[in-house]
Structures are given as C-alpha cells and as structure tokens.
C-alpha cells in the first residue's frame, strides 16, 4: 500500500533521512507526485517550448588525421555557443557503456537499507556518497533524482570503497574517458592561441568523480525536474545517457534566436546510441575569459526510469582558477576574478540549483 505522509516532514524523513530516495517512494506505489516535488513554474521545462538539438555528433577518431582542423573547428564552435556536444568513436568501448548502465541499475535496485550504507556520515569513505535530490536540506522543492558519487583517489581506494555493484565499470569508465577529456581540453586550450604551461590540462582536470544518476519513473513529468537548471563547475563533463532522453541545455542570450520571447529556450540533447555527451563547465568558461560557455542544463523526468553516468573533471581544490593572463591582456578586460577552487565549490554546493549564475556569479569581476 502507498505510504501516506501526514506532513512534508515525514516525507522528507522517509526519502532523505532514511535513505529510501525517490526510488523508495515510487516503489511504495504512487499515482501522483507529492507536493514537495511540485516545482514552481519557472523551474519546470515546458516541453512545448523546447526544440531538439539536431547537431550531428563529432567523430573524435578524426582528430588525429587529415580532418584534424575540421574536428577542432566543430569542437570550438560548440564550446563557444551551446557549451554542449556529442562525440562518437571516442575510444570508450561500447560494451563498457552497456555495462555501466547495467551496473548503475544494479546499484539502484539494491534495497534502501543496502544503499543507505553509503549515506554521508556512515559511508566507509567520505568520497562515496549516496544521496537524493541536490541539496535537500536547503531546497523548498525536491528534485526527482537519486545518485551515487564516486570520488577517485587511487585504484586501491576505489576497489575497496566503491559499491561492488558498480565499481568495476565505473573505474574502467573513469580511466578510459579521461583520455578523451585530455584530447578535448588540449584542443580547447590550444585554440585560445596563447602561451600556456604544459601542465595546464592536468591541473584543471586532476580531480575526478564518477556520478551515477537514477531518475525513477515519474507520474507527473510536467510538474517536476530530475535536476534543476545548473552548470557543472569543473573543466568538462562526460555524460553517458540511456535511450530515454530528458537532458536539456539552455541557450545563452547571445545565441537565442527567439528574440520576441524573453524566456530563454531549452534544447533537448537527444540520446544517440554509442555517443557520449560533453559539456563545458565553469572552470573552462573562467579560464577562457568567457570565450567558451559553460552550459546551463537541466533534466526533465519521464514516465520511464532513466539512468545517466557522468564523469566530472575538476581542478584540485587548492588550485586558484582564473582567466589566462595573456587572454586578459588580449581582451583588455578580466571577466572573472581569480578564486580558490575550494571556495568556488563551497559556494556551489551550499546553494540550490537556480541557473548557471548560481555558481558563476561567485567569480564574476565586479
Ligand atoms: C549532472 C547532470 C544530467 C543527466 O549530474 O550534473 O547534469 O542527464 N546530469 O543526468
Ligand atoms: Ni550537470
């Protein structure tokens, strides 16, 4: 029988504190979403006002070959406009992508009790965190998502502390996808045409986290969000999505053709079998002094459950991030100030999701 929650607090207790997650709520039987999940109008993605992002995926294998320049142009163009693109022939084996999705389902299909062993406070490692929504203790309205974050330190720690259901595939993904992360970051930085230290790519992507997202089937996709509007704070993110769809990117003002409409437009990033989604994070927008755009994105829920697996590539917390000095000279203006990445992350993780400004404003020059 469906549980009845007499107050919003008892729902919070069940979903967040007891570690049942949204999945626990759905599994207990639900014909409509509880009030606590009903988003205000401005946070919802109105499907009628969306378009498909029909740009063909970029063939990464051609980066080394006669078409090098063309592929570089495609990557740079995407980074300067939407901040989102998809890649194929990316070097991550397709069987690995399948086993990643399977292992993600395996983890979220565990009982709430088993998953709760990875809740903050009891998890065997501070780097491994099973959670629901984004910042439930601060959010008035909760997001329709459960997740597990797997922070990487060493192989040994990963094999010891990551959940058995997904550690093998997650670690292989991290290793394999890190190569394409490097290639893409090199292209982006070289195209800035300024002198940089050789280590620049590594120091801006040296902290890695695999995050598995689970969006349970939702009875009211129009009223809820899986993830609210945000940009990722790291350098770039690699994302594997399954075939359900629901990932949207918001067009920047400059790129919005829809001038007679003040509302920014949402573009759907459609699932493409075998492809990986790449999105630019705040760190690269800041480093490039605003030339590359970190992408504001969000996820709509669906009547079917969906999984996705992100590889976040962050700078180390002790790094001061900021626009490249030579670029600032060339541009005649510093659009961002230099900030300690730890402070940047603290600001992001103590806020709720409310657009890319909720993170980037922290580093804006005043
Ligand atoms: C994220 C995210 C998108 C998705 O985890 O930061 O934006 O499709 N995920 O799950
Ligand atoms: Ni994101």
From TrEMBL:
Transmembrane segments: none annotated. It holds the Pfam family DIOX_N. It comes from the Eukaryota. Its cofactor is L-ascorbate. GO terms for biological process: coumarin biosynthetic process. Keywords: Dioxygenase, Iron, Metal-binding, Oxidoreductase. GO terms for molecular function: dioxygenase activity; metal ion binding. Belongs to the iron/ascorbate-dependent oxidoreductase family. This is Scopoletin 8-hydroxylase. The gene is LOC107480135.
């Amino acid at each position: 029988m469906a549980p009845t929650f007499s107050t919003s607090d008892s729902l919070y207790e069940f979903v967040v504190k007891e570690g049942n997650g949204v999945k626990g709520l759905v599994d207990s039987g639900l014909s409509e979403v509880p009030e606590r999940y009903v988003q205000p109008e401005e946070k919802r993605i109105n499907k009628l006002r969306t378009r498909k992002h029909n740009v063909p995926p970029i063939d990464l294998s051609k980066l080394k070959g006669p078409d090098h320049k063309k592929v570089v142009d495609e990557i740079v163009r995407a980074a300067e406009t939407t901040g989102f693109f998809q890649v194929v022939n990316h070097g991550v084996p397709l069987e690995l992508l399948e086993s990643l999705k399977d292992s993600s389902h395996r983890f979220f299909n565990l009982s709430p009790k088993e998953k709760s062993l990875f809740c903050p406070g009891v998890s065997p490692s501070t780097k491994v965190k099973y959670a629901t929504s984004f910042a439930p203790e601060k959010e008035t309205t909760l997001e329709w998502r459960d997740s597990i974050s797997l922070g990487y330190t060493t192989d040994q720690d990963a094999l010891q502390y990551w959940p058995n259901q997904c550690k093998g595939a997650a670690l292989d993904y991290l290793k394999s996808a890190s190569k394409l992360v490097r290639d893409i970051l090199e292209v982006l930085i070289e195209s800035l045409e300024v002198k940089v230290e050789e280590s620049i790519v590594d120091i801006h992507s040296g902290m890695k986290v695999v995050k598995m997202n689970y969006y349970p089937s939702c009875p009211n996709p129009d009223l809820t969000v899986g993830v609210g509007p945000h940009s990722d704070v790291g350098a770039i993110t690699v994302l594997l999505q399954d075939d359900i769809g629901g990932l949207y990117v918001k067009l920047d003002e400059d790129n919005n053709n829809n001038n007679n409409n003040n509302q920014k437009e949402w573009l759907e990033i459609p699932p493409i079998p075998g492809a990986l989604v790449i999105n630019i994070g705040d760190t690269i927008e800041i480093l490039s002094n605003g030339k590359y755009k970190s992408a504001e994105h969000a996820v709509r829920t669906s009547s079917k459950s969906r999984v996705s697996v992100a590889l976040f590539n962050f700078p180390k917390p002790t790094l001061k991030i900021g626009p490249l000095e030579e670029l600032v000279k060339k541009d005649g203006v510093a659009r961002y100030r230099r900030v300690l990445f730890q402070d940047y992350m603290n600001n992001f993780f103590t806020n709720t999701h409310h657009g890319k400004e909720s993170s980037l404003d922290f580093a804006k020059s005043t």
